[in-house]
Amino acid sequence: MPVANLAIAAALEEIADRLEIQDANPFRVRAYRNAARTVQSLGRDVQAMAARGETLEGTPGIGADLAQKIAEIATRGSCPMLDRLRGEMPAAITELLQVPGLGPRRVRALWHELDVETPEQVLRAARDGRIRGLHGFGEKTERGIESALAVHLGKERRLALAIAAEYAESLVRHLEGVRGLDHLVVAGSFRRMRETVGDLDVLATGTSGAAVVERFVNHPEVAEVLSRGTTRAGVRLRGGLQVDLRVVPSESFGAALAYFTGSKAHNIALRRLAQERGLKINEYGVFRGGKRIAGDTEESVYRAVGLPWIPPELREDRGELDAARAGTLPRLIELGDLRGDLHVHTDATDGRDSLEAMAVAAQAQGLAYIAITEHSRRQAMAHGLDPARLAQQGTAIDRLNARGPGFRVLKGIEVDILEDGSLDLPDSALAGLDVVVAAVHSQFGLARARQTERILRALDNANVRVLAHPTGRLIGEREPYDVDMPAIVRKARERRVAIELNAHPERLDLIDTHCRLCKDAGVPVAVDSDAHGASDFAFLRYGIGQARRGWLNRDDVLNTRTLPALRAFLERPAATSPGNRTSGKRRA
DNA sequence: GCCGTTTTCGGCCCGACTGTTTTCAGTCG
After folding, report:
1. What is the DSSP letter of A587?
2. Under CATH, which number does the domain A159-248 receive?
3. Confidence at residue A574, expressed as pLDDT on a 0 to 100 scale
């Protein structure tokens, strides 16, 4: 999504937060939250739309009023209502809503009764014992707030999916031995393969909930038990990750799985659909009146409301229910569909393993080909290749391929896009390669227009076949650089260039909504590991998760193609007369 | 604030757990 959309969504969330603290109509609050979500996952740049005088009116959940407010926020960063709300309450107060255990009512009470408005002030009030005296608060609540605030002020709260996966797998192993345990699944955003995970939701079915809960709270990593009942418990692990467990009867497995997989927005939409049919969905099943009519499997739940099963990665209320109803759900790509990997490093530059070791590992992963794409010379710290070393590596690749048929190693490069949009290696060095992957590794802070122009110019070089990690973000570390992604996708279509979905767990760059942008434009996406070591091909699983979240099917992904079909795509258009914009080399 | 072949007003998803309560409000997912 364009960065500006994120800012607009944040402003809408802020309105919702402040309205909530003012005890506004909850459905009005929800309207703002829904609008924020819509703007955030929109493929179009709302700021650019506003500049053209277009609004979002008519988009589901956005009427005349919200459309007008969004346009104003897009133009000047705020709107009169937000200005007014900001004037009526302290600036930092919305941050308190992020603290577990603090909702709008308590935040309002703390602010009005104790005149505290920042996390630090509330923490001090808790430590001074000033909170327990307030109506509706007690000593335990005060201690809960104190400990939640200490965590909140300590560190960021969302973990990369790959890290969460290690905890999830450990928890599953720990619980598997419990007697009477039937199903055991980690649901939630983890199952939806979101790029970061705020907490883990473990769902179990079986005869003895108490036994499962008992085993669960005794996991060696548990630092604190937040709650425990006979069917549900919550803990915080030593690393700070919160894990919630829920145990339901086996006949409710499907309903509970759907329920705890979410997303919340998807569930709300699904239950509304059920309501229209005179049904009620909860975590125990689908009910007509008092009678249970479905719930043992997820399929049965969706069937009850007239829909086919919807893959978890799509459950974000971004049109999947309509698509399911229309029978147009995509047949999502699977890890096994990948035939190759077009972004791989070796120890010739900053990789950890040799060319041969990388080839062996890729083969073990089930791939039929890889492209070796080292950094170019500008990346001095990574020992980037100059033309001579690139040629040397080509010779080594020839030798490897000569050993026999079957697995193939392609010659490539991850060439730097320099600040002016030119490439870090001359065309003469690039022309002989099988695949040229271009990427930005410097000057992340350029203004949007310049950054976009820089990348567009790089794509005009006819040697470039793939644009790698298109926004340069590092999850939780570095923001994406500010680019006009719709413009880049348009250029990629025009130049027949693929766009990479970098599967490295810290990158996962392309994001899901941009995957859909590519899909809709017919621009192939390359799901690549960016492997710097033999074990890194395992990253592909996360790239596939992200691709599925972006609605991609096998045909949308470049490296599902057979080697001959891939080569056909990689082939440079024959040189033609200048000015032909779909083929031919650009003038230098 | 949005939305509507039953409605332009009156709806808007559902349940568990905790703590502070004597029957429930607040929060969370």
Report:
1. P
2. 3.30.460.10
3. 52
